[in-house]
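Table S2 (text version). Query chain:
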Amino acid sequence: MSDLSEKERKVIEECGTEPRFSSELLEEDREGVFACKKCGQNLFSSEHKYDSGSGWPSFYDVLNSENVNEKPDKSHGMQRTEVVCSNCEAHLGHVFKDGPEEETGLRYCINGIALEFEPRV
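Corresponding structure-token output:
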């Protein structure tokens, strides 16, 4: 949990999107948990992270369904499903139905700037 920078605020509180391939977390491959940058609630596990090729950290499942909420997003002339932290309503990204079929079939396309990584020790 930390004070948000202007870039973080634009994504997390104003439903922005970080540039593709800009997140350091895109290449993060250690075991651990990805938590909400705004409130610290645990959201995703490294066990569910995969390289979707989209340019944003991607997960095929959430750590705990109670920690993430989904809501319709019709902005920008598209119909998508927004993903937010259930604790603080921080905008995280979107979920799509084009993820790994052998898992959940879902792709949680998440702004790395909205997450903090906590490595497993």
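Notes on Table S2: Residues 72 and 78 are 10 Å apart (CA to CA). The chain has one domain: 6-119.
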